[in-house]
TrEMBL record, chain A:
Region entry Disordered, spans: 1-27, 96-115, 215-234
Bias kind Polar residues: ranges: 12-22
Record organism: freshwater metagenome
Record key words, sorted: Transport
Keyword Transport in annotation: yes
Protein name in the entry: Unannotated protein
Alphabetized GO MF terms: NADH dehydrogenase (ubiquinone) activity; oxidoreductase activity, acting on NAD(P)H
Acidic residues composition bias: residue spans: 224-234
Family stated for the protein in its record: Belongs to the complex I 30 kDa subunit family.
Entry keyword annotation includes Transport: yes
Gene3D superfamilies named among the record's database cross-references: NADH:ubiquinone oxidoreductase, 30kDa subunit
Automatic annotation (TrEMBL), chain B:
Entry GO MF terms: NAD binding; oxidoreductase activity, acting on NAD(P)H; quinone binding
Protein name, UniProt field: Unannotated protein
Acetylation as UniProt keyword: no
Classification lineage: unclassified sequences, metagenomes, ecological metagenomes
InterPro entries with a match to the protein in the record: NADH_Q_OxRdtase_suD, NADH_UbQ_OxRdtase_49kDa_CS, NDH1_su_D/H, NiFe-Hase_large
Amino acid sequence: MPLPLPSGKVNPLSSPADSTAEATPRQDAMREQLLSDVTACLGDALVQSHINVGNDLCVRVATDAWASSAATLKASLGFDYFCFLSAIDWMPSPFGKGEEDPTAEREERSTEIKQGLAGGETRMQVFARLVNHRTHVGITLKTDVPDATPVVPSWVNVFTGANWHERETHEMFGISFAGHPDLRNMYLPTDFEGHPLRKDFPLLSRMVKPWPGIVDVEPLPGGGDEDEAEGSAQ
Amino acid sequence: MTMIGDRQQLAYIASQAADARVNVELETEGMTLNIGPQHPATHGTLRIIARLDGEQVLWAEPSCGYMHRGYEKLTEVRTFPQVTALVNRIDWLGSFANEVPFILAAEQLMEIEAPPRAQWIRTILFELSRIANVSLFLGDLGVQLGAITPVFFAFRDREYVLNLIEGATGGRFHPNFDRIGGLKDDLPAGWIDETRAVMKKMRKFCDEIENLLFGNEIFESRTRGIGVIPRDVALQYGMSGANLRASGVDWDLRRDQSLPMAWDKVDWKVWTHNDGDSYARCWVRLQETRESTLIVERLLDTLPSGPVMTKVPRIIKVPEGEAWVSTENPLGEMGYYVVSKGDLGPFRVKIRSASFNNISIVPWLLKGVYVPDIITILASLYFILGDIDR
C-alpha cells in the first residue's frame, strides 16, 4: 500500500502514466463541437477528419476546394491567424534511415505509401495550420496533391503570409500553387535541380559516409578498447 | 551598404549637367540599394534589396538562404534524442527554448509527461533563454540607432544569465539539456540563490535600458509611428510573439494553451501595446523581459522536489502518429509538426519558426518608408537568421 507523500513531493517510482491510467474516456467535446461546425461550413469539400484528442483537429479537404475552404474557415469560424503551410512526402525513403551502411547489401524496404491522420490518396499532401486568435484553438488542414500534376490552389489571396510558405514548399517539394504571383526559390540557387525534401532526393552526406551517431554507446577516445581490457583480465 | 547606380541615372545626371538648368523642380530617378548580406543590422546574413525613389522605398525584398542548413531534411536521418542538438541551432540566442517544443511533441506521441520538478526547471531555463535573448535585442536596438552604450550593458549583463545556463546545463549557447521524459540533470547546488541574485541584476538592466532609450527624444522620434502593423495584417502574415502583441492582440501561448509546463502555476502579466509601431514592439519586449525575471523568481519559490526524469525505455521508439506543439519562444511562436512512423527517428518534422513569418511581412512593411527607417524597422521586428533559414 503506497504511503501518503507530503504535499509537493512526488513518488519517484510513479510515472505520469499511472495517475492517468484511470481510463478517462478519450473524448474531446470542444473539438467535436468544432468539427461539427467545420463540417457544416465546408460541406462537400471536407473529405475526412480526425480528432487528436486534447491536442488537435485534423481535416482533409478536396484539392479543388483548398483555397475556398481556407477562405470559408477564415470568414465564418474566425480562423484568421495563419500559422504555417508546408507539405509531406509520404513515400518511404528509398535510402533508408541514414543509419545503414550505404555500401552493404540492402534489405528489402517497404515501398508502401501510407498517409497519416485524416488519410489520403496521393503520395504528397500539402498541410497548413490556422488558429482562431480569440479562442486560441487551432486546426490542421490537409489536402492531396495530384501525383500527375502536383498543383494545388494558392492561399495568397486568403492569407498574404502564405506567399513565402508556398515558395518554400514549391522549392522543397516541387508542388506548384495555382494563382501564386512569384514562385521563385527562397533558399536554393535558381538553377538547383531536384526538390530536397522529397523522400527520393538523397542526402548526399549520408551516401558518402554512414552516420556514426546511431551507435548509442561509443567507447571514449583513448579510454582503451573494451575487448582488450577483457582479454587482459582473463 | 553598396549602391548600385543605374546607367539611366548616370545618363540623367550627365544630361542635367549639360543642360545646366537651374531652379527646376527636383526629379528623382530610381536606384537599387543593396543591404547586406553582411550588415550589422541583419543579425546574420540577410540581404535586403530595396528599390528607391529618392529617399523613399518603392519596394523591398529580403533575400534569404545564405544560412539555409536543411534541418528539416537532417531530422529525417537522426534519432529522436539526437534532434535536439540540431534544433538548438535554429535560434542560437535562445537555444534551450528551441528544444522544448520538440521534446514536448515527442512526449505527446509517447503519451508520457515529465515529472513536476522537470517541468518547473524547463520553464525556468526557458525563461532564462528569453532573458538572455531579448536583453541582447534591447542592447542592439541602441546600436541600430547610433547609441553605443546600451549594447555594452547588454553584453555585460547577458553574461550573468549565460553563466546560469552554463551552470545548470554545461553549455552556454547550446545546452542540449532537454530529454524525452525530463531533463539530463537536476540543478547544481547554490544555483537557486545565484539565480535570484542575477534576476535582480537583470531587472536593474531593464531599468537602465528604459532610462537610456525609452524616453530618449531621438529614440522616440525614430520609432514612434514608424513601421506600423495593423492587427489584421499581423494575423494574416502569421506574426507572433511581441510583434503580434505590440499590434494589440492579447495572445500569449504561455498563457493560452495547456502544456505540461509551469507557466500556469504562477501569476504573471501579458503585456500588449495598441500602437503597432516600432516603439510598441521594443516596449513590449522590454516589459516581457522584466516579467520573465519575475516568472523565474516565482517559479523558484514554488519549485517542487522529486525526480527530474520519468521512466523511459533506453532506446526510444516513438509510436506512430502526428503531433503539433508550439511554444512562445523569445522570437515568437516556435512549433514543430512531428510525424512519426514508429521508428527511432522522425519521418517528417516541419519546423515552424517565428522569424520566417515575422520577416515575411518586410516587403509589405517597407513600402513607402524612408531609407534610415529600414534599419529601425528591421531591428524592431527582431529576427535571428538561423530562425529564418533553418
